[in-house]
Amino acid sequence: MAPSLADPVRPSLPTMDHTTDDNVTAGEVELVVPDMFTSIMSVELAQNPHYAEVKKEADAWVAEILGYSEKQAARNSRADFAYMVSWWVGPHCDAETLRTLIDWNHWAFYWDDQFDEGHLKDDIYGAAREIIHMMSLLDDGHPGVSREEDPLGYIFQLVYRKFQKRTSPALQYRYKKYVEQYMLGVLAQVNSRKADLKTMTVEEFMVFRRATVAAMPCMALVEYALGIEVPEDVINHPSLKACQEVSVDLVAIHNDILSYKKDVLSGEDLSIINILRSQGWTLQDAVDETGRMLDGCYQRWYEALLKMPSWGSTTDRIVSTYLEGIRNISLGCLLWSFWTERYFNREEGRLVRETRRLRLPIPPPPSGSAVKV
Q1: DSSP per residue over 95-134, as a string?
Q2: Is 32 strand, coil or helix?
Q3: Whole-model pTM?
Q4: Interhelix angle 95-116/169-192, nearest 10 degrees
Q5: Quick count: other Cβ atoms within 10 Å of Cβ 89?
């Protein structure tokens, strides 16, 4: 069996009371968020040493390609996708490879924002056309895309061609499959905006959410970055698939907690917290339940390791590296969530991580429901 990545015994942690801060003003609520750095998330990661230099290059390049104004370029720099990626791969890849992963994430976040808060948010037909176009760029026979006429397509195609140069047809197929699953999930997200949250269970929502967080394509990119390739029969083993699902779920749950303030301010309804609220949970109880969901993820990870067979020393080493890599995707995204200014300013992110207290405007009831905070 592939070796465990962390001690399955969780440390005893102090509990946090739910006493409201005296400084919370009218129209605000303060939430106590779960401790997200326990179990397999408790390890110390090493950051890639090329982070600072490659961030500067990648930020300048994407600003030029996408025609950012000075204000937009500064906002993108503060979002700092390079910071997130630099934890995924640690010291195990060179500057050129790190740059490829950063470029992909610049594409992914900008592309995804069109469907979250941009012009395709409620346009199912426009969303479908955009997805068909992007998928066509992964066809080996597709001509090169003009950076002037289609800057997002140019970035997407360029990254894939760099990926192709150092990967086998099998890993290229895996990447394409994961990208397709993600894009179909985005299309379902656009279509779901008409749905009544009260009719959706948490389990149903998680099936939907797994496809929309773009974590699966990142797993193929991490294989590329770490210089490994898990054999196809091994990657499809139930134990490996269970660990993939846990990694994706951790990204989704962490994101739905830490982006909740941003969601409230932007009027976004679709989140695990709002699914629970629509079913009658108070806001704090819904957040507490996400903590129990995280505990369930850790349990599923260790159960998968217990059922994982050995494929021989060579493959087991590859599997062990892969498991560490997909765990680091989750942990890198978590570290980034407190650092990036997409969700908080830098000081607020530091305080939320240290105190586990998140202050935000009192959110309205989820669409189609009558619930209380």
Answers
A1: HHHHHHHHHHHHHHHHHHHHHHTSTTTT-HHHHHHHHHHH
A2: strand
A3: 0.90
A4: 20
A5: 26
64-108: pLDDT as tens digits: 999 999 999 999 999 999 999 999 999 989 999 999 999 999 999
Report d(CA 131, CA 236) in Å as an integer: 26
pLDDT at 256: 96
Four-CA torsion 252, 286, 17, 261, nearest 10 degrees: 60
**What token pair was written down for 217?**
């394509």
- Read off the tokens for 273: 């917290």
Residues 6+ apart with CB under 8 A from 36: 254, 257, 294, 334
The answer to whether 369 and 197 have CB atoms below 8 angstroms apart is: yes
- Residue 249 identity: D
Identify any residues that bridge with 358 across adjacent strands, giving them in sequence order: 31
**Mean of pLDDT over the chain:** 90
- Cβ neighbours around 310 below 10 Å, total: 10
Cα–Cα distance, 373 to 362 (Å, whole number): 7
Structure tokens that stand for 66 in this block: 């996408």
Q: How far is CA 258 from CA 53, 121, 264, in A?
A: 28, 21, 11
Closest C-alpha to 96, from 227, 289, 283, 246:
227
Q: Distance from CA of residue 67 to its chain's centroid?
A: 25
**Domain residue spans in the chain?**
31-361
Look up the CATH number of domain 31-361.
1.10.600.10
- Convert the pLDDT of each residue in 309-322 to its tens digit: 999 999 999 999 99
